[in-house]
Design brief:
The protein has about 180 residues and is mainly α. Helix content is about 65%, strand content about 0%. It is globular, with a radius of gyration of 17 Å. About 40% of the residues are buried.
Amino acid sequence: MTTFTLHTDETAPDESKTILADAKKQMGRIPGLYATMAEAPGLLKAYKYLGEQFTGSSFDKDELTVVWQTINVEHECHYCVPAHTAIAKSMKVDDAITEALRNETPLPNARLEALRTFTLNVVRARGNVGDEDVQAFLDAGFTQRQILEVILGTAQKVISNYTNHLAQTPVDAAFKSFEWHKAG
């Protein structure tokens, strides 16, 4: 097994140092995901940029959480599920939403369930979603823009989930209380 370096703002390649220093300033620490991604500055920059774009999308905090966690759970990401549980708490997302996503149980309303279903369709079909599934998403009150924004969220999560699988990124102490393992 290859052991990946968990960089600091001092050991990272020059192109990653600013992002790590900013993270340390904002969060008081460098998340393990950032520390791992720092090895490939372009990856870290792309992940951060996609995250900013997705957070600025037309989705509200509950919807962002549904897209993120649906993908994290589907990809069985040992790091991102706990991380996004903590993020959802900081965003004041209802615990019922977070727990339903983590446990793959029904969400509190049909609209959020439609978003989870569509997101799963995008991930599982690698974008080859059928017309009926697209129409069901639109009929649930979502828009063409949001179809494309699910793709944006998926791109961001593929970067982090795959990195964490390959690097076996250790779960940060700040997320340990939200540790997660796929049911079944």
